[in-house]
């Protein structure tokens, strides 16, 4: 046998174009179970509700200033309290996960959002109105984090993650149109009635959440024996999770990106609308 023939026999036959012989690149994803589809719809709808809330404040700022008799410096308090809600969620999330299962965490986030919108629509005093933004951001943080966590466990997660985040964009598109229409419908403005819209959406959110995640809507049970020791172990484990997360450089890089990007866009969303309305009235 010549050296050329030997090399031919030892060579690896390349598959023809389009043939991967079971390669995952060409594998068809398995169909999503109906129960999982309902959970994905629930996760996407929670992002839609969050988008409606986040995008509506900018259009309402001129009416807030007029109704409460405040200035733009006082309006900035709302953004500070919103940040505090997200920050508090980052601290408490790991600890709550030791006691609440997935469905319970999602339901807790939905309930906090409903409560905040229920306090807004009857035109509360400004301090209470501002505090509701901390409550709603806390609820959104719990729902967003655990919705992302669930969707990332589904097959072809990248597609479903794109879908649920697209629903957030749909909410941000709808929010300003609805809030502007309601706020400008009457003179004097009854802008606070806009919050009946996210309130109704929030009720639908909690109903869908309970229906979809009923199988995990529970507390994480512990044996009655040595329950105090188990609680201490849970708290220690949660603290270790937080420490481990804080030692990850990529977490800090992503956090800084979202801090500046979303912080700037959310703030500019409101201030640009207010500046435009002020300039048009001159």
From TrEMBL:
<feature type="transmembrane region" description="Helical">
    <location>
        <begin position="160"/>
        <end position="182"/>
    </location>
</feature>
<dbReference type="Pfam" id="PF07690">
    <property type="entry name" value="MFS_1"/>
</dbReference>
<protein>
    <submittedName>
        <fullName>Major facilitator superfamily</fullName>
    </submittedName>
</protein>
<feature type="transmembrane region" description="Helical">
    <location>
        <begin position="194"/>
        <end position="214"/>
    </location>
</feature>
<dbReference type="GO" id="GO:0016020">
    <property type="term" value="C:membrane"/>
</dbReference>
<feature type="transmembrane region" description="Helical">
    <location>
        <begin position="121"/>
        <end position="139"/>
    </location>
</feature>
<dbReference type="GO" id="GO:0022857">
    <property type="term" value="F:transmembrane transporter activity"/>
</dbReference>
<dbReference type="InterPro" id="IPR036259">
    <property type="entry name" value="MFS_trans_sf"/>
</dbReference>
<dbReference type="InterPro" id="IPR051788">
    <property type="entry name" value="MFS_Transporter"/>
</dbReference>
<keyword id="KW-0472">Membrane</keyword>
<keyword id="KW-0812">Transmembrane</keyword>
<feature type="transmembrane region" description="Helical">
    <location>
        <begin position="70"/>
        <end position="89"/>
    </location>
</feature>
<feature type="transmembrane region" description="Helical">
    <location>
        <begin position="40"/>
        <end position="64"/>
    </location>
</feature>
<dbReference type="InterPro" id="IPR011701">
    <property type="entry name" value="MFS"/>
</dbReference>
<keyword id="KW-1133">Transmembrane helix</keyword>
<feature type="transmembrane region" description="Helical">
    <location>
        <begin position="96"/>
        <end position="115"/>
    </location>
</feature>
């Amino acid at each position: 046998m010549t050296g050329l023939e030997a090399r031919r026999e030892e060579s690896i036959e390349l598959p023809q174009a389009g043939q991967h012989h079971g390669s995952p690149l060409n594998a068809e994803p398995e169909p999503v179970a109906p129960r999982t589809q309902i959970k994905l719809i629930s996760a996407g709808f929670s992002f839609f509700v969050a988008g409606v809330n986040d995008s509506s404040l900018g259009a309402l700022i001129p009416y807030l200033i007029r109704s409460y008799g405040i200035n733009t410096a006082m309006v900035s308090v709302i953004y500070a309290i919103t940040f505090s809600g997200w920050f508090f969620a980052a601290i408490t999330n790991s600890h709550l996960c030791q006691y609440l299962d997935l469905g319970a965490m999602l339901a807790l986030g939905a309930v906090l959002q409903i409560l905040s919108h229920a306090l807004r629509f009857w035109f509360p005093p400004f301090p209470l109105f501002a505090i509701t933004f901390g409550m709603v951001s806390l609820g959104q943080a719990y729902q967003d984090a655990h919705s992302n966590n669930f969707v990332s466990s589904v097959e072809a997660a990248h597609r479903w993650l794109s879908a649920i985040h697209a629903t957030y964009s749909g909410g941000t598109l709808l929010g300003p149109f609805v809030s502007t229409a309601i706020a400008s419908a009457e003179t004097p403005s009854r802008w606070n009635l806009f919050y009946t819209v996210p309130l109704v959406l929030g009720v639908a959110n909690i109903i869908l959440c309970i229906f979809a995640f009923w199988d995990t809507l529970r507390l994480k049970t512990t044996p009655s024996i040595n329950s105090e020791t188990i609680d201490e172990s849970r708290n220690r484990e949660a603290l270790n999770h937080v420490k481990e997360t804080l030692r990850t450089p990529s977490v800090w890089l992503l956090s800084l990106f979202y801090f500046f990007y979303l912080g700037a866009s959310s703030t500019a969303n409101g201030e640009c609308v207010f500046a435009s309305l002020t300039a048009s009235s001159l």
